[in-house]
Amino acid sequence: MRLRNKPGALDTIKNSPQYILMDGTDWKGKWQQRFEKPHPIHIEVGSGKGQFIVGMAKANPEINYIAIELQTNAIISILEKQLEEELPNLQLLLVNGADLDEYFETGEIAQVYLNFSDPWPKTRHEKRRLTHKNFLQVYEKIAQPEAELHFKTDNQGLFEYSLGSLSQYGMTLQKVWLNLHDSQFEGNVMTEYEEKFSKKGQPIYRLEAKFN
């Protein structure tokens, strides 16, 4: 998704160092110091405009959240929400999700969220999918023992691929939803894409898996 350039985006980032970083290497192993209180750290890889992670941070003050996004114009939308809300349990990181082990220490993360990731449907782009084994290796490296990965998408092909990829990697699939909004799941926080696709009647797929 291509977003419009926001005038002054970099200035906004530079003027908000308490909430957002463009390089997290100096905080590797020390992320708890960026939060008001020490709590389990959950990360969302590819946070888009941030509706999900801001909603989660508001609903769960006992958890610390980090939004990870590569697109400057997307993360600015999250930062604008954070500047308005001033949530003490939310931090933003403008980096590539493929390099997370450069920013987080082994065992520093309690949970990983992947929401409506780019499906990269062509076979030659398989390694770009956020549920490819190369990404799973990075998540596992920074995750605590038996940490969980939660994944949502509207793309059936990506969901089927992810089920296979996680299983082959040796993760334990705990729960699977083939139509999340037609289930009894409680506490769902929707992303912008999820609202858009669900209004069109498209099923939302979701899974919860655990690293072993």
TrEMBL record:
Q: Which residues bind S-adenosyl-L-methionine?
A: 44, 69, 96, 118
For this protein, the record's Gene3D superfamilies field holds:
Vaccinia Virus protein VP39
Tell me the enzyme class: transferase
| Region of interest: Interaction with RNA | 124-129
Q: In which pathway does it act?
A: tRNA modification; N(7)-methylguanine-tRNA biosynthesis
* InterPro entries on file: SAM-dependent_MTases_sf (IPR029063), tRNA_(Gua-N-7)_MeTrfase_Trmb (IPR003358), tRNA_methyltr_TrmB_bact (IPR055361)
Domain of life, per the record?
Bacteria
E.C. numbers = 2.1.1.33
Alphabetical UniProt keywords: Methyltransferase, S-adenosyl-L-methionine, Transferase, tRNA processing
Short name of any one Pfam family annotated for the protein: Methyltransf_4
What HAMAP family does this protein's entry cite? tRNA_methyltr_TrmB
Q: What protein am I looking at?
A: tRNA (guanine-N(7)-)-methyltransferase
What organism is this sequence from? Vagococcus silagei
